[in-house]
Design a protein that fits this description.
126 residues; 6 strands; 2 helices; alpha+beta; 12% strand; 3-stranded antiparallel sheet; Purple Acid Phosphatase, chain A, domain 2
């Protein structure tokens, strides 16, 4: 779930509590340390951290972004392809980076997949 403020992710987590398995937020690209199980059983974390190309500006090709910044000439931003990492949790859903470890996993670049954005919400089984 992407929101402009952590309070919105908090609000949405509580609203969806008991209706979905997990609410996983993203915006700052820095993992938060507030993972918890909400009162009705939904797993929640405000920000899972950056997933995407680390050699980028928020997932976009560095040179293209710098060009727009320095020339003010609009251009299409290409998705960066180098140093793509999957961050945020291990195979058991536990958050990483909590103790300063760098456990990012290398993943192949996927066209159209950018840093951040995306929801990981599923319906709870009855």
């Amino acid at each position: 779930m992407h929101a402009e403020a952590t309070s919105r992710e908090d609000r949405d987590g509580l609203y969806l509590d008991g209706h979905v398995t997990a609410v996983v937020g993203t915006h700052t690209h820095v993992a938060t340390a507030d993972e918890r199980i909400l009162p009705k059983g939904t797993a929640y974390i405000t920000d899972l951290g950056m997933t995407g190309p680390y050699e980028s500006i928020l997932g976009r090709d560095v040179q293209r972004v710098l060009s727009v910044m320095t020339t003010a000439i609009p251009t299409e931003f290409d998705v960066a392809q180098n140093d793509v990492k999957l961050c945020g949790g291990d195979d058991h859903g536990r958050q990483r980076h909590r103790q300063g470890r760098d456990d990012r996993a290398d993943v192949p670049a996927v066209r159209g997949v950018t840093a951040g954005g995306g929801a990981a919400i599923g319906r709870r089984q009855q």
